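This week, think about what follows.
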Amino acid sequence: MDYVAEVDFAVVGVGTMGSMALWQLSELAPEGTSILGIEQFGRLHTRGSYSGESRLFRVALKEGGDFIEFAQRARELWLDLNEKSGRDVFLPIGALSIGPSDYQTMMSTQKVIEEFDLDHSYLDSEELRERFPQFEVAKQDIGIYDPQGGGIRPEVAVASATELALDNGAKLWTHTKVLGIDRLADGGAVLRTSRGSVLAHNLILTLGSWAGELIPEAKDVVRVKPIPLTWFMPRTPELFSPENLPIFLYDKPQPDGSSFHIYGAPSIDGYTVKFSTNAFFVDTVDHPDQVPSTVREPALNAFSQRVAEVIPDFFPDVARLSMHHDGFTEDGHAIIDVLPEQSLTMAVGMSGTGMKFAPYFGRLAATLALSKDPSRRPEFFSVATHRP
């Protein structure tokens, strides 16, 4: 067979995970290793999971366990990306969680802080009002401030990681669709692409919401979930600048006993503030092309009214909305695994949490691909734990 290219490593899908894997692989691989990234869209685009101006980052994660180490390692790499790119990819502005002191999310976060001896500040409702007057807090609310948290600029992250990989000698094909993957008996694969066939001796698949199309192990395991993001316009924009507001999460009790969970980031553009919820869509779809183009007006109006109760300074209407998606697994854990006999590594199913860990997960994928040693990843990331 004639090949248009033959490479030591191919990274398929150069979005969040792919750009980070490409960057880390270009730093960890021996000199002279040929590395090719293949992206079906442009170098930057709005079709994947990462667009939307900002993402949240915390170290004090209620999940605890390994995820604290993942976050700490990721933060080191985010700062490394800042330094090497010369851009403000990671904004070290802290993270604020607000909610009733007896809420499980707040108690779990406090437990993790104590268990791992994490830097923090606790604020009662009066201290919250004084330090963060943007929020209309209730008497029973407390605040947990995580100084190691911050904001991530996702488009800048993907562009910067990809640029560093190219500076290190990697190649990138954009607007190139992988039509099929023929795995070879002795390892590696032939990638049938819109440019022709590529022989890759090692493969890293970072396909996001498209995982089920090209990875049989991920089919019916990684499902696509719509994620809408919304922005509101404040009357006093300076209150919501990164200098005055960290990234935030707020659990607000409702009269019916439910919780209104909202999250957001300070104003990046100077006039709107991201303020969103995961409650709009609970069902998954089969393919990214089936993601709705917007949120139904009644649901959007109801959300806007609730938001105005939390932050009175907002005009009570959505100023901007964009639709996104991600690949979700049933247990919420990603699949980051290597099939050593096939020289194939995958990092998919990030379940809406991939961006915060992205540089570390990218490094883990690169390490697995180079070492072909599955023991270097946690067992809960294995393909086997996600298959029936």
About this structure: The chain has a mean pLDDT of 96.
